[in-house]
Amino acid sequence: MTTKRVETVIVGGGQAGLSTSYWLKQHGREHVVLERAERPGHAWRQRWDSFTLVTPNWMFRLPGAEYDGADPGGFKPRDEIVATFERYVAGHALPVSFGVDVTAVEPLTDRPGYRVRTTAGDFEAQNVVVATGLFQRAKIPAFAAGLSTDVLQLHSEQYRNPAALPPGAVLVVGSGQSGCQIAEELHGAGRRVFHSVGGAGRAPRRYRGKDTYEWLTLAGFFDRTPDMLPSPCRGSQLIRTSPARAAGTISTYTSSPALA
Predict the structure, then answer these.
(1) Helices 15-26 and 78-91: angle between axes, nearest 10 degrees
(2) Which of 10, 107, 251, 257 would bridge with 33, disulfide CB 3.0–4.6 Å?
(3) For residue range 59-81, what is the model confidence (pLDDT) as tens digits?
(4) How far, in Å, are 204, 211, 214 from residue 208 at the CA level?
(5) Quick one: which of 221, 235, 219, 5 has its CA closest to 121?
(6) CA 15 to chain centroid
(7) Cα 71 to Cα 59: distance, rounded to the nearest angstrom
């Protein structure tokens, strides 16, 4: 198979990879985006039926596709997010190759540059941008294998809606955005819910008439550069909030550490 030569290879076609592609195209720079999935917005397609972003619509800022709709304070649902990514790739004619799995990136031995090995053949590139994202692999504790088969176990990417679960109480493990939204939905559907929480940060949905994310923006929280951020070794400090569909409040009694 012939080796393809290109100035820049972007590994990953999520929002980071597509944003990079947008700006490279704006500057006339040769590049290709290699995406393992078959369609745009793959990570978002794995979310449950009622999933929404927890950031307000006005914070949706893909370059060249900033939100300009009639509901800036609302929260994009899953299917609208996916449709936005589909329109983004097609509308800007971004050079994305779908269904291509990158297996290795190696420095060239005889000259500057990199060899990118993929399921569609090799690429040689002067630059490689790795935009594969975070949280793409489920973290399942080892003891889960020892639980009774009478207990249905699902990762959040497998959950779809309350009706898809068998009758009975539900234990939701983890108190990040996914755990809180799922626990909120199950509680609203009349299920008895036990919520095992972890160390995710907590914040009110609104404060003094403004969304928490508006206050963070005004305070310059999102203007920080990488060198100003805390070390990843300290653990994630994502702020936990809820979309406004259920009055924007989640009450959780902390009685044990998260199991995952």
Answers:
(1) 20
(2) 10
(3) 999 999 999 999 999 999 999 99
(4) 10, 8, 11
(5) 5
(6) 9
(7) 12
